[in-house]
Structure formats: structure tokens, C-alpha cells
């Protein structure tokens, strides 16, 4: 099977890790897989075994990244995807869209392709609404009406808007490399010495970073041993604290080391509760207590669930973790639950869907998860 994955450009966000890992697993299973990217992109942050096709200044497609002179816009990158798909899309068995904005140039370039698939990793209109980008919100919302087979990475997207998966081929979760994201020794949480709170720094308001900072400030004011470690920075302008540290992992192994270096991880997102969230899964796999606002695979048995926009609840959960002698039981459950997301299984499931084209009937779609918190209604 030949699979083409057009992208807006390589990035460090979790969705691109998913694509790189899926592509590598498909290559190992005998498929030919190529990314199609505008030449303006940076090289892949997440290593991939797939090929890379670059679309240059005048639409030429090459396996060597050409220079791209001049001012670059988002529209230019969409045009490059269109040009690349028009030139070579017909040579592939599957063209896999992975972002709502990429669906449009793919469809315009190859409207009669027999296997256009859209892998929905996030309900993107939510983000564009939060960021007040009405045109992108409209294009994203309407993208789910294009003639793609839709695969979602969590049943929650069928709950948020049933139309997303009404023509879908199934549900395929994200995956994880358990050789990299493995548990740290059980000892350490709540012991003597500094107590380190960790989070992933994100500037987008929907990621809720500010609420971790507020919780940390309250905890640090009462306890000199409390410290904060933030991966990648991206903190609000002007924010600093003498006991806060920024760590910039350059790859997954360093990111896993970051998780294992903290005593508790906080993932305080404000949107799409019940959807997948990489820091939650990775932290759980690394044996770190995870405070979160309800993201897959977290539940009340394997993590600490708090309401969104509530720094007081975050601070209280951190205090409970530090003082609870039974916390290791919950951590062990989290480590076990993370094992269900191994990459080989995930990639094989999606290949099966590519081959069978099995459609989901609307009446088969899940309703809201039974343990969905009240604030996520």
C-alpha cells in the first residue's frame, strides 16, 4: 500500500508525533509512505522512517528540500499542498489528511481519488473559536462535510459533533513508544527535599498554562521546597519566578526524562475534555502522578481529575498527592493503562480501516462517556 500524508509543515506538537510514528510503523509493515510538505517547513522534529517530498517555489516536487525565497504565508503553504497533490496524488492508494485546513487543497487536487481519508486528531473548530479566527473556524467546520472517510482518535469527537464520524471508518487512538516513555522508580514523591511540579508550557489560552502558574505561586508562597519545571517555556510575557525553571527537550527521550524529573505533572486544558492528550498519557506511562482536567486515558482511578480554570483545585490535588501514602496504587494503575496504546497495535488498526472502508452508522456512534465530568457537558 502506498500512503501520502500532506502536511502544512513539520512541527513539535503531538499530532506530528502521531503521524511520524504511524508512518514508521506502516513502513515496517511493508507500506510505502511519503510526507508531502511545503519546502518552507523546518526539518522533522520527530524522526520518521517515511520519505519526504518537498514542494518548491513553482510547485515542483522533489526529495531534496529546495530553497524557498520570498515572503511566506499560510495561503502559500496551502497552495503548495494543492500543487503537490495534483502532481503526484494519483500515484498513491491512500491520501491521508490530518488537519482540517489540508482537506481543502487535497480534495480540490484529487476530487475523484477513491480513498481520501481524514484522521481527526482534534476537533479543530473549537480551537479556532477560542482563538477568535472566524474564517478558519468556518473552513474547519465545513471540512467535515467533504467526501473523506473519517477516522477519529477518540469517540469524544462523535459526541462533540456527531457529523464528524457519521461517514467515518472508525476510531483509532494515538499511540506511545513504551521503550522511551517508561516508568521511573517508585520512590521520590513527597519525600524530603524539593517538590517539583511540572507542566508543558503553551501560550494558547485553551491549554490553561496560566492556571498551573497560579497554583504554583500559591503553593510556593506557603512552602519553600515547592518548585516548578516547565517544558518548552512559552510562558506569559513578563512572568517569572525564582523557583521556576524552563527545560527545552530536543527529542522524545529528553521529554521522557523531563516527565521523570518531576514529582507531579499538571495538564490543565480547557477544551475537549475526554479527548486524547499526549502529556497525560506520557506522564502516566512514566510513572508520574498526573493532575488533569479529564483527558484520555485518565480517570479517577489512575490520576487526579480537577475542574478547568481552577488553580485552587490544582493546588489542593498537588497537596493530596504529596501527602497520600496510597498514591502509588493509582500510579501503578496508570502505568498499566498506558500499555494499551502501543504503536504497533494502533498502526495496524488504521491499516485495517484503510483496506476495508468499513463505515460507521450514525446509530452506532457513542454517546457521552459515562464518567464525563459535569463541566464537560
Q: Outline of this structure?
A:
With 377 residues, the protein is an alpha/beta fold. The protein is built from 12 helices and 14 strands. Helix content is 35%, strand content 16%.
Explain what you see.
By secondary structure, this protein is of the alpha/beta class. It has two domains: 194 residues, Glycogen Phosphorylase B (Rossmann fold); 145 residues, Glycogen Phosphorylase B (Rossmann fold), CATH 3.40.50.2000. It is 35% helix and 16% strand. Helix 1 packs across helix 12. About 3% of the residues have low confidence.
- Major sheet: arrangement of strands: 4-3-2-1-5-6-7-8
Number of helices: 12
Estimate the helix proportion, in percent.
25-40%
Strand content: 15-25%
SSE string, helices as H and strands as E: EHEEEHEHEHHEHEEHEEHEHEEHHH
Radius of gyration: 21 Å
Q: Determine the N-to-C terminus distance.
A: 41 Å
Category from helices, strands and their pairing? alpha/beta
CATH topology of the largest domain: Rossmann fold
Mean residue pLDDT = 87
Number of strands: 14
Shape: globular
CATH architecture annotation of the largest domain: 3-Layer(aba) Sandwich
- The CATH class of the largest domain turns out to be Alpha Beta
Low-pLDDT segments, ≥5 res = 359-369
User: Sheet bearing the most strands, described?
Assistant: 8 strands, mixed
Q: In CATH, what is the homologous superfamily of the largest domain? A: Glycogen Phosphorylase B
Tally of domains: 2
Amino acid at each position: 500500500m502506498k500512503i501520502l500524508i500532506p502536511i502544512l509543515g513539520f512541527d513539535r506538537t503531538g499530532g506530528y508525533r502521531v503521524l511520524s510514528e504511524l508512518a514508521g510503523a506502516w513502513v515496517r509493515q511493508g507500506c510505502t509512505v511519503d510526507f508531502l510538505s511545503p519546502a518552507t517547513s523546518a526539518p522533522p522534529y520527530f524522526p520518521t522512517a517515511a520519505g519526504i517530498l518537498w514542494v518548491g517555489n513553482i510547485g515542483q516536487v522533489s526529495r531534496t528540500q529546495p530553497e524557498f525565497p520570498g515572503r511566506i504565508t499560510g495561503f502559500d503553504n496551502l497552495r503548495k499542498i494543492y500543487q503537490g497533490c495534483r502532481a503526484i496524488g494519483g500515484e498513491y492508494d491512500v491520501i491521508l489528511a490530518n488537519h482540517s485546513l489540508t482537506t481543502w487543497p487535497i480534495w480540490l487536487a484529487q476530487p475523484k481519488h477513491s480513498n481520501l481519508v481524514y484522521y481527526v486528531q482534534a476537533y479543530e473548530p473549537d480551537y479556532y473559536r477560542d482563538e477568535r479566527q472566524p474564517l478558519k473556524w468556518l473552513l474547519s467546520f465545513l471540512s467535515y462535510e467533504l467526501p473523506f472517510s473519517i477516522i477519529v482518535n477518540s469517540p469524544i469527537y462523535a459526541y462533540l459533533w456527531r457529523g464528524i464520524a457519521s461517514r467515518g471508518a472508525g476510531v483509532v487512538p494515538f499511540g506511545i513508544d513504551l521503550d522511551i516513555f517508561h516508568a521511573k522508580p517508585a520512590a521520590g514523591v513527597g519525600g524530603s527535599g524539593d517538590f517539583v511540579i511540572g507542566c508543558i508550557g503553551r501560550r494558547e489560552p485553551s491549554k490553561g498554562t496560566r492556571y498551573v502558574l497560579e497554583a504554583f505561586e500559591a503553593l510556593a508562597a506557603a512552602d519553600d521546597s515547592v518548585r516548578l519545571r516547565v517544558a518548552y517555556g512559552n510562558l506569559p510575557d513578563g512572568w517569572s519566578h525564582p523557583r521556576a525553571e524552563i527545560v527545552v527537550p530536543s527529542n522524545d527521550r529528553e521529554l521522557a526524562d523531563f516527565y521523570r524529573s518531576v514529582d507531579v505533572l499538571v495538564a490543565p486544558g480547557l477544551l475537549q475534555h475526554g479527548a486524547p492528550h499526549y502529556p497525560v498519557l506520557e506522564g502516566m506511562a512514566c510513572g508520574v502522578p498526573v493532575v488533569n482536567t479529564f483527558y484520555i486515558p485518565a480517570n479517577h482511578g489512575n490520576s487526579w481529575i480537577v475542574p478547568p480554570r481552577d488553580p485552587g483545585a490544582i493546588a489542593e490535588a498537588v497537596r493530596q498527592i504529596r501527602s497520600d501514602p496510597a498514591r502509588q496504587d493509582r500510579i501503578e494503575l496508570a502505568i498499566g493503562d498506558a500499555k494499551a496504546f502501543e504503536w504497533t497495535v494502533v498502526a495496524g488498526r488504521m491499516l485495517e480501516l484503510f483496506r476495508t472502508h468499513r463505515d460507521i452508522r450514525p446509530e452506532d456512534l457513542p454517546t457521552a462517556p459515562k464518567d464525563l465530568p459535569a463541566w464537560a457537558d
